[in-house]
Design brief:
Distance between the termini: 47 Å
Number of strands: 16
Largest sheet: 8 strands, parallel
Strand order of the largest sheet: 7-6-5-4-3-2-1-8
Length: 436
Amino acid sequence: MLVLNLVVLWRSSSREARMAPCLVLMCMILGLSGVIALDNGLVRTPPMGWLAWERFRCDIDCKNDPKNCISENLFLDMGKRLHEDGWVQLGYNRVNIDDCWPLKDRDASGNLVADPDRFPHGIKWLAEQMHNRTLKLGIYGDYGTKTCGGYPGMMGYLKQDADLFASWDVDSLKLDGCYANASYMDEGYVEAGIALNLTGHPIMYSCSWPDYIRVAGMRPDYEAVAKHCNLWRNYNDIQDSWESVTSIIDYYGEPENYNDFGVVNGPGQWNDPDMLLVGDFSLSYEQSKAQFAFWCLFSAPLFMSNDLRTISASAAGILQNHELIAINQDEWGRMAQRVSKAGSGEVWRKELSNGDVAVVLWNRSTGGMHMKMTVDFEQVGMKGASISVRDLHEHKDMGTFSRSYSAFVNPSGGVVALRLSAAKGDRLHGKAFTTY
């Protein structure tokens, strides 16, 4: 409690007054790292569920658009679909509110208030409804003075808001970073994590911290981020376009980025490339398969942002692929690496805890014809005279092979996702891989 009070005092005083005690304060914080590290035991595998933002944004016009506006009815509808349509059984057990849920002003006590017209029963009641369906409810806040949509931010209210969310039995907090000075975020996001821990209520903590640091031209300290956040955004918001998806994959494929944030990915600490677009408007069937396959190999949070009331059977089939979900939920939580790039073809790999390797063959060509692509087993960490290959989209064993496997991959973003299994002792443990 002493640490939090000192941090609050430090943040609320003038910059000039802060400078003298700054080093002393930070040394105290670092000395009590066991107290302030998040270490809440949550999300030992990547979280899965549904998030409102990409599909429903900040639609608050419930008079003219009642089915799609940000309201308790929207979240109840999505929770019902998760519960009744087989999603929960696959692991999709979180419903997440994003921006635009509260009133534009706090109440007389300084508390956030859910808009009573759109959330007439309040957030605590909504959390109870989710819990009754074996679901978890997430809430949204912003570290700055306002949210990105112009609603009250948490600056100056971090502890008060954390206590409020805990009293509502909320299960996660997504903390954005609009209307805030990025140079203060290294302390501020830690402060918010302390406040969540001190509530004694288990709240998964999702940070936008490193992305705002990146945009400000600074380099995120991913060791610190992983210590204080359960998941974090590190690149641009996803938009409903294939170009947006590929820009994120490319960012994750850069060797320097893997060495920065890929290496800290693991149980309880996840890189978040943002929401799944599968079932929305822009992606083709092949591109939808590709996004889902990559997110599974990244060990990324699987947060759909679509309309589960109207989703097509083909889109649902992609998102409910239990073999790819198993890759995503592997207990090691390794993040995939790109191991080769030749023309418009790429090969990516992810190590699995039982010694298998998951592989994606990706055809970026727009030439209109499929491409024959080959995975070299030694290049992805496998050796031996007998490598079993399973196609994870076709749910089919393709046979055993000795040095490599080839497949035809459709153009315009198509993928073939594979699981390679070797005889015991035939995996190249500790091999240094060249990325491109």
